[in-house]
């Protein structure tokens, strides 16, 4: 029996989540070694952030597994929002990490230390940064394509680590050349600010998803076009509502039809609309409430000659 679209997406999510965990562990090992050989506060801060990457990858696996579960008596709309919960938890962990890194930076200013073997530490950290760059871009691209909040949040988190790594390597390379040891805690402080910024943005996006924020105007426009094109025989569509939960789009609206139209004909119209919406928007849960013509509203999509949209 061939795999459904939903099963294919879920399998891909699971694969990405497992690979993400493996990449995070490799990066953590490299960054821990970089800190161990150098004693740099900035490198320690970077390693500390990567610990959160590992925890986030584990949380992402849990969320994706839970989101795959079908609807049940307690969750009649399914478990799709588990990915948003995972993204919010990851955002909170990122914010806590920023505070811990800031504390390390403060200790570095108060009790400055020399950085030992900086070049070896920078090489190890640079390798970890390159690994994270390749994987972060992959996660972000795939997460956006399959509309996975957990993968998008994970990709954003990993890429924040990359930009931090680039700045860290460039800054610490100046220490043996200039003797400016204050650069070490300064870079750590900048890492904290960047991590705080990324964590806040991740939190904002995740809360928007949980609050059922409307999608962008392009999606709404496309939805209206499909209804106008496919509702041949109907008179109007109004009270259109749409929300996105991960890879699933929930759509509901009222469809006004002539009072003399048979149930069979109305059913065919609804089938055409549903097929058109799924073809245009992907996986959808659609609820169409059919009404007689005296229920028409001026604010709806008027289907003149069944195809034109005003």
UniProtKB/TrEMBL annotation:
<feature type="transmembrane region" description="Helical">
    <location>
        <begin position="117"/>
        <end position="137"/>
    </location>
</feature>
<feature type="transmembrane region" description="Helical">
    <location>
        <begin position="158"/>
        <end position="176"/>
    </location>
</feature>
<comment type="similarity">
    <text>Belongs to the cation diffusion facilitator (CDF) transporter (TC 2.A.4) family.</text>
</comment>
<dbReference type="GO" id="GO:0015086">
    <property type="term" value="F:cadmium ion transmembrane transporter activity"/>
</dbReference>
<dbReference type="InterPro" id="IPR027469">
    <property type="entry name" value="Cation_efflux_TMD_sf"/>
</dbReference>
<keyword id="KW-0472">Membrane</keyword>
<dbReference type="InterPro" id="IPR002524">
    <property type="entry name" value="Cation_efflux"/>
</dbReference>
<dbReference type="GO" id="GO:0005886">
    <property type="term" value="C:plasma membrane"/>
</dbReference>
<feature type="transmembrane region" description="Helical">
    <location>
        <begin position="15"/>
        <end position="35"/>
    </location>
</feature>
<feature type="domain" description="Cation efflux protein cytoplasmic">
    <location>
        <begin position="217"/>
        <end position="293"/>
    </location>
</feature>
<feature type="domain" description="Cation efflux protein transmembrane">
    <location>
        <begin position="18"/>
        <end position="211"/>
    </location>
</feature>
<protein>
    <submittedName>
        <fullName>Cation transporter</fullName>
    </submittedName>
</protein>
<dbReference type="GO" id="GO:0015341">
    <property type="term" value="F:zinc efflux antiporter activity"/>
</dbReference>
<dbReference type="GO" id="GO:0006882">
    <property type="term" value="P:intracellular zinc ion homeostasis"/>
</dbReference>
<keyword id="KW-0813">Transport</keyword>
<dbReference type="Pfam" id="PF16916">
    <property type="entry name" value="ZT_dimer"/>
</dbReference>
<dbReference type="InterPro" id="IPR036837">
    <property type="entry name" value="Cation_efflux_CTD_sf"/>
</dbReference>
<keyword id="KW-0812">Transmembrane</keyword>
<feature type="transmembrane region" description="Helical">
    <location>
        <begin position="84"/>
        <end position="102"/>
    </location>
</feature>
<dbReference type="InterPro" id="IPR027470">
    <property type="entry name" value="Cation_efflux_CTD"/>
</dbReference>
<dbReference type="Pfam" id="PF01545">
    <property type="entry name" value="Cation_efflux"/>
</dbReference>
<dbReference type="GO" id="GO:0015093">
    <property type="term" value="F:ferrous iron transmembrane transporter activity"/>
</dbReference>
<keyword id="KW-1133">Transmembrane helix</keyword>
<dbReference type="InterPro" id="IPR050291">
    <property type="entry name" value="CDF_Transporter"/>
</dbReference>
<dbReference type="InterPro" id="IPR058533">
    <property type="entry name" value="Cation_efflux_TM"/>
</dbReference>
